[in-house]
Design brief:
4% strand; mainly alpha; 2 strands; 49% helix
Length: 96
Amino acid sequence: MEPTFEEEVRAILARIEQNTQVAAIRAKVLFDVKDIAILTGFSKDSVYDWIRVGRSINGAKKRVFLKPASGLDDRGFRIFPDELDDFLSHFPPARA
């Protein structure tokens, strides 16, 4: 069954809202855990694990950690965009 015009418009508006949210996050100087979860599509628990215990590279024993900015612990974890990009560069992109 083909989607109705209204369903198509709702889907388009949902994508616009998501893209707007992602663009607003990308404009930040520092990301919080929720921002990273939205950008990567992983849960906040996964992001916390990346900070605390790291993520293994290709199932190997070597682990890569997501490093929060120092001196901002009282505000929760904050991550510089470059640090997130560096962390993610160790892993292949997800398949669409």
